[in-house]
Batch of 3 targets.
Target 1
Amino acid sequence: MRLNKPALYAAATTATLALVLTACGGSAAGGSGGTWDKNATVNIGSLYEPQNLDNTAGGGQGVTEALNGNVYEGLFRLTDDGKVDKLLATDYTTSADGLTYTFTLRSGVKFHSGRELTSADVKYSLQKVLADDSQSARKSNLEVVKDIATPDAHTVKVTLSQRSISFVYNLSYVWIINSQAKNLKTSEDGTGPYTLGKWTRGSALSLNRFAGYWGDAAANKQVVFHYFKDATALNNALLTNAVDVVTSEQSPDALDQFKSNQSYKVNDGNSTTKLLLAFNDKAKPFTDVKVRQAVSAAIDDKKLLESVWGGYGKLIGSMVPPTDPWYEDLTKVNAHDVTKAKKLLAEAGYAKGFSFTLDTPNYDPHPTAATFIKAQLAKVGITVRINTITPDEWYTKVYKNHDFTATLQEHVNDRDLVWYGNPDFYWGYDNKQVTKWVAEAEEATTTARQTELLKKVNRQTAEDAASDWLYLYPQIVVASTKLSGYPLNGLNSQFYAYDIKKKD
């Protein structure tokens, strides 16, 4: 979700997770030919400034975009196609019962402070994710960790309370941090190809090439993330060469000016970001599945997508994007049908409709989507009161306190369908069979069995209209043709900068 708060982010608040290049040696997009400047500064335009620099303390989408893979690294890294590569771990073994993982750490890795990476730092980093005050996107997924042992400086032995087929995958979200580091909300001590330069709040954050990096050096000397309040200002910065690339275009109406200009390249990549109308399934009238189905059927998702994104983006009938292994096209399950919506409302005892408050984050596209939904639901007798709130207010009111009836929110992470197996998650969906399937899928011994079970979860949550999945965002990266090597996809909001080359 494109929350500017924690646990959902992989971000998140509330984490997807977003992974495109290999560690300073991957593939990407952009122009080719000509010589490139190894000492270039690459200026990156973004709408997502970090809340702070700690991804376990509500740093939000912005801290993932800027620091993940660039400043901090994990034992593993997710590739653009969702596979897991070894990074700071060179090897690992798993016990016969699937409960004990033994990891061998890469030698010669140093933190930006100069201290050498040891197993104690890995243990500390895992404990930081699992701490009581952690807002990590993967905290709940990693709570299967029972014990962390460090037999020697380059070995970490993790024992789980139960089998977890996603354990290594989830470790790719864990930043390895110097166990002696302090003030991580405003500073850093990672192992990545860049160190933190200067962060001017409300303006820019710079990263400098780390001379002591264990791998291939970054292809540029410096990257600067410039932060803007709206899409128009972001586009103007690109047009005036104040930035070289925009991480995620949010104004499709502005694309023609770039498409028709040979100085720019418009790239349409893959996204895992879903825009949800999330019901509080424990609050009336959304305790009734027929009401949720009626609301879903009353909203013309195709018309909404077209009005917000033009010809970009995809309709999605569930929480699962096409890039997840258990994807199935379920857009027909609760397809737009006003007659059906009215019939379901009558069957639920709301023939004359009802009213509810929609808590809406104050940044695009939520206000636009909220207004559209209000108009659509009025056609079936439902009155919507829009309550516009800040991201911080959303986190406290909706995510933390569950004090809402319905809300709009973006969920960024891939493979986040499993959150519907947790009745305590903010939307309160509680289907015992779904919870059982999710648990069984996580303890599966094969990926085929995991996929089979999660396809059942996918279909059941769609049939229950657990939420209304409005659409899947496009991932539009616009860049100067002087650039190459930049990420194309928006999986979990990461933006690896180390392979970006800039022509002289």
Target 2
Amino acid sequence: MHEELDERGTKPVIPNRSNRKQPFSFSKRLYKLRWRIESAFNRLKDFRRIATRYDKLARNYLASVCLAAALVWWI
């Protein structure tokens, strides 16, 4: 699996499990950045309107995402 990722030029960001026999290297800095992005999406999904995408038009959905992002950032 790691060979395929290396061919595409991607690097592992998720840390090893403690019981892994052959641990691989990963960047703690990239893992922190990844966590920040994932947590931002999780906070946006707290808004039911965004998680279920009630809006039919893309522009209305984008406006809802922008409003929710502003509220999340403000709070």
Target 3
Amino acid sequence: MKALVARPGGLGDVLLAGPAVRAVATRADRVTMLCGPRGAPAARLLPHVDDVVEWDPPAEPDGAGTDGLVRRLREESYDVALVLARGRHAP
């Protein structure tokens, strides 16, 4: 099974996602982490992450950058995805 774990944010946010990544890795053969450029170095340190997809969302929606990411994720055909959102949206 191929899994995608998405965690926006910086270095600390991605490091704190480590336990969730470890939990996903218990069932997945391959774990890819999707994060921004500030979090990518931390994602590469996590022991259960096999691949890192770095994406910096544009300030204004633009088809070119987003389309490339969507195409890449679609080509990988992940079986499961876990999106770890920031807590500021919580009630």
